[in-house]
Give the backbone structure.
Amino acid sequence: MSNARRLLATMILPAVILLGLVASAAAGGNAGKVDVCHFSNRYHMINVSVNALPAHLRHGDVLPDEYGDCP
């Protein structure tokens, strides 16, 4: 495993998941859920389990920007 992948897997991805949980909780969201910008012809917001977040990010979905908007 390359150093970049190891860094992504061990530090960055868990931090992104944690930030998503904090943002969701602050907005009164469901526990264990996070908003994701899902791509299907264009981006639209969906709410998924935190456990599903890595799979969504791997296939091209992204997290909302700092304003909660999708690209």
In short: The chain has a mean pLDDT of 80. The chain has one domain: 3-58. Helices lie at 3-26, 53-58. Strands lie at 33-40, 42-49.
